[in-house]
Amino acid sequence: MSASATNAEALVPKFRFERLLNQDQAGRRSSLYGTIDSQPALLVLERAPFPASADYLGSVSGSLRALKNLGANDIYHWYLANGGPIDRPEGDGDGDDPFADLKINLIYPCTEQHVKKYSRQGVRFVTETPAIYRDHVRPFMQARREAGRLNWVFNIIEGRKEQEDVIYRTPFGEDPADEGFLLLPDLNWDRKTLDALHLLGIVERRDIWSLRDLRKRHVPWLRHMRAKFVEATTKVYPAVEEDQLKLYVHYQPTYYHFHIHIVHVQLEAGATQATGKAIGLDSIIERLRVMQGDEDAGMDGVSLGYTLGEASELWTEVFEPLKRTGTASQSR
Questions:
Q1: DSSP 140-178
Q2: Best CA proximity match to 188, nearest among 281, 76, 84
Q3: N or C: which end of the chain has fewer CB within 10 A?
């Protein structure tokens, strides 16, 4: 090793921390201010990618420390854990381990569809016209709903699972304006990093599968629900203000039961918030409000563009066959 490299490596252990400047990338990068030999210094810590080594990946599940279950529902489980081999101080006395450095999701038993979803794959951009939705996508949605893929959602709605996590619920049917909905942490949030806050708002009614089922008559209900979700979030997490939240829905969603994502504006936009996947709730409400037609006019009458993985069933069973036959461009 060269003398210059040796000298450079000797600098980091001499860093004396003074204060945290920033955390971004959902807490995966921290900018620290301090000194080295009494001179000001800035140290940026960023988590490196996981190694692709089969030896490492094969041993990591058995080497986890301080594994703590955050919740379980049907085949889905999520945890916090310490993945490092070095002894670390205990928690700070509030019952949490501040050194938990891994957020773990487990799907067990998983299906072939889960494997496809999480595998590396090419991506396509498709345009779903009203005709394609009516003739192809709607039947596809119905088949998936009837296959029992919503059991975990119904467990929450019917009070069998995750009730300790529900931070807001309005009684179903008590007020026609409410129609029943609830709010709880998304399974991908560590429940501590507020800049990465991610909540899930789930409706209890089962007649709205996706944004395609929304109509002009639903505008007051959507506005009411939005206000209740924001109010509940800022009450439970008082450090978060209303204008630090954004609400959106996915299309296509992962599962066909209407739900809304509530996230902190600091949460960096990954694939789930990208154009072609996430649509702002306020934009949907405004689009419905100005839509021509009577109260039954709705989102099933507009064309929507979005991205699909090449391994997804919607691509292999609907859009790829339409592309091969040339009917996708004709269904407009």
A1: HHHHHHHTTTTHHHHHHHTTSS-GGG--EEE-TTTSTTT
A2: 76
A3: N
Q: Which helix (H) or strand (E) holds 191?
A: none
Rounded to the nearest 5 degrees, what angle is found at the Cα of 296, between the Cα atoms of 218 and 226? 10
Residue tagged 């008590």 (tokens): 174
Which of 103, 105, 104, 109 is closest to 74 using CA atoms? 109
pLDDT in tens, 103-157: 788 888 888 888 887 888 899 999 999 999 999 999 999 999 988 888 888 888 8
Other beta carbons within 10 Å of 46: 10
Q: How far apart are the first and last CA of the chain?
A: 65
Please report the pLDDT score of residue 95 as a whole number.
Answer: 44
Selection from 142, 146, 124, 122 nearest residue 133 by Cα:
142
Spell out where the chain has E strands. 16-24, 29-36, 39-46, 65-73, 76-82, 102-107, 123-128, 168-170, 181-185, 198-203, 245-250, 259-264, 278-280, 304-309
Which token pair is 175? 């007020």
Which segments in the chain show pLDDT lower than 50? 86-97, 330-332
State how far the Cα of 170 lies from the Cα of 181, in Å rounded to an integer.
Answer: 6
Q: What is the pLDDT of residue 331?
A: 45
Which sequence positions are flagged as catalytic?
Answer: 259
User: Mapping DSSP to helix (H, G, I), strand (E, B) and coil, where does residue 91 land?
Assistant: coil
- Extract the tokens encoding 67: 């594994």
Considering Cα of 134, then 136, then 140, then 146, what sign does the dihedral take?
A: positive
